[in-house]
Write a structure and sequence with these properties.
two-stranded antiparallel ribbon; 72% helix; 224 residues
Length: 224
């Protein structure tokens, strides 16, 4: 009973956070600055992740729960890759040629392929405020490998930038590293590893923590 009320509250809060995420992304995508565009895209895709997740929980769509689960994995992966691109371009823009970014387009196509592979998610259904997913562990491991790899690369970028920075940027990067560690850990626990031993979906909690930390990072970078 306590879990039911807790998840209900988190889901209703997530509705508000979804709107805030879209608003913040709109603000950032209109601004210029090192890495700002990628951070804005991360917030935009986070809003889409929330939209697909919440519309499934509340059953506000004729689309199947499996489709919503597939879109959840895809948009969740895109949040990470845009955050990775942000870490490559903050506080100094990446000097690598833009053609090098074609590699990331290939990664997106690969993750989309995995997310929509028929054997990845074998069953899905929702009963507010609960949601259930049966995930093939082999394909989940492939997806998790992507998640761990780009999380590690993001931290590598942040640590390299931290070592090479000073002043306000060093302070900002230290706070971003701490916040990013929290959101990665929360998503590993609530959105990924739990599917190895249960079909009970805790993605709503993972999304909640993801927004809180991205908003925390937003407040660090753009508080003025």
């Amino acid at each position: 009973m306590i879990l039911k009320y807790l998840l209900s509250v988190i889901l209703y809060i997530n509705v508000i956070l979804m709107v805030v995420s879209f608003c913040l992304s709109y603000i950032l995508l209109k601004r210029k600055g090192s890495g700002v565009h990628y951070f804005g895209m991360a917030l935009l895709v986070l809003g889409l992740w929330m939209l697909f997740t919440l519309s499934d929980y509340f059953r506000l769509t004729p689309l199947s729960p499996i489709f919503h689960a597939q879109m959840g994995f895809l948009t969740g992966a895109l949040v990470l890759i845009f955050f990775y691109l942000f870490t490559r371009n903050f506080p100094v823009p990446d000097a690598a040629p833009k053609s090098k970014y074609y590699f990331f387009y290939g990664i997106v196509i690969f993750i989309a392929f995995i997310s929509f592979w028929p054997e990845f998610i074998t069953s899905a259904y929702s009963n507010f405020p609960f949601r259930y997913r049966t995930i093939n562990p082999f394909y989940l491991t492939i997806y998790n490998t992507y998640f761990f790899l780009f999380s590690a690369l993001s931290f590598k970028n942040l640590f390299v930038s931290y070592e090479g920075s000073g002043g306000i940027y060093k302070i900002q990067l230290r706070k971003i590293i701490v916040g990013s560690a929290f959101v990665v850990l929360s998503n590993i626990i609530f959105s990924l590893l739990n599917f190895y031993y249960t079909n009970f979906d805790l993605t709503a909690i993972g999304i909640f923590f993801t927004f809180i930390i991205l908003f925390y990072i937003y407040s660090i970078l753009f508080k003025d």
